[in-house]
Amino acid sequence: MRAAFWLKDHHKKSDFIELPSNMRNLLDDWTFNFPLLKELGQVFSTINLYGLTLNSRPIAHALDDIVLFPPIPDPPSFRDFYAFEQHVKTARHHRGLEMVPEWYQFPVFYFSNHNALLGHQWPLRKPKNTTALDYELELGCVIGKGGRDIPAEHAEQHIAGFTILNDWSARDIQREEMKVGLGPAKGKDFGTSLGPFLVTIDEFESVKVGKSYNLTMIARRNGVELSRGNAQDLYYSFGEMIARASEGVELFPGDVIGSGTVGTGCILELQPENAGGWLEVGDTIELEIQGIGTLTNSIVAYDSTENLNHR
Q1: Cα–Cα distance between 114 and 191 in angstroms, integer?
Q2: Structure confidence by residue, pLDDT tens digits, 114-165
Q3: From residue 120, how far is each of 39, 62, 73, 84, 164 by CA, in Å?
Q4: Any idea where the domains of the chain sit in the sequence?
Q5: How far apart are CA 287 and CA 118, in angstroms?
Q6: Tell me: domain 78-300, CATH 3.90.850.10, correct?
Q7: What is the DSSP letter of 115?
Q8: Tell me: the pLDDT tens digits for 59-115?
């Protein structure tokens, strides 16, 4: 075998540096890496990778044979917004609350636990102190280019892509702690599912409608459809959310921003008596968003010995 370090005319040394080994490193230089990934994708689409091996190990694997991590397993932060008007109105109504005029002045968010993310087909351990476990059907975006004070009209240039987000919620815990005037906290921070993939923003250009995207969103419980909505019903666009999030602070590559729940996208809105009750151990929730795929998680007991962390 012969080895050499080489260059070719019209190329720079940096053109041949190896690809990043993880998603965070990939996003750290997204402007450079994204065009390179698109070129690689075109090349790989012409090659049958199945059957090829390296050091007697297969290069390609079937999806059924692997464990998918969250697309961003360790984001710098996770902000979840409250941007679908129907969800806000209905959820507040069921809590005996009127719609607040301030909601129409600016998009609001809370910080959730970015260290408690679950991937596709990972089990969710049911919190031991809740009898009102709920799912939330959301569209999540991942920041590819950081920045501060980002104008809403330019914010999409900072988005790497979109994924499906399930903001699991313990409604009884959330209800009590938010009476204090803070939160949500323990009613939310036990787990958030992301996946199954991060789909780059260019894939959604054909379904862009105004400030949002025409993407059907569906939730199923044990195979039965409970929720159906559309991302184009967002009152605030992701551009407006990013502008708000970046006011006076830096956003970083890999930051996750959730849309908030689409209308009808949780049991709180539907009401338990219309949805088979709150979620229980053994239930499986599937969230599907057009153009992204289906994110599936099953609920296990708090003290389950099932593999809860694939890290």
Answers
A1: 9
A2: 999 999 999 999 999 999 999 999 999 999 999 999 999 999 999 999 999 9
A3: 27, 15, 12, 24, 10
A4: 13-65, 78-300
A5: 14
A6: yes
A7: T
A8: 888 888 889 999 999 999 999 999 999 999 998 888 788 999 999 999 999 999 999
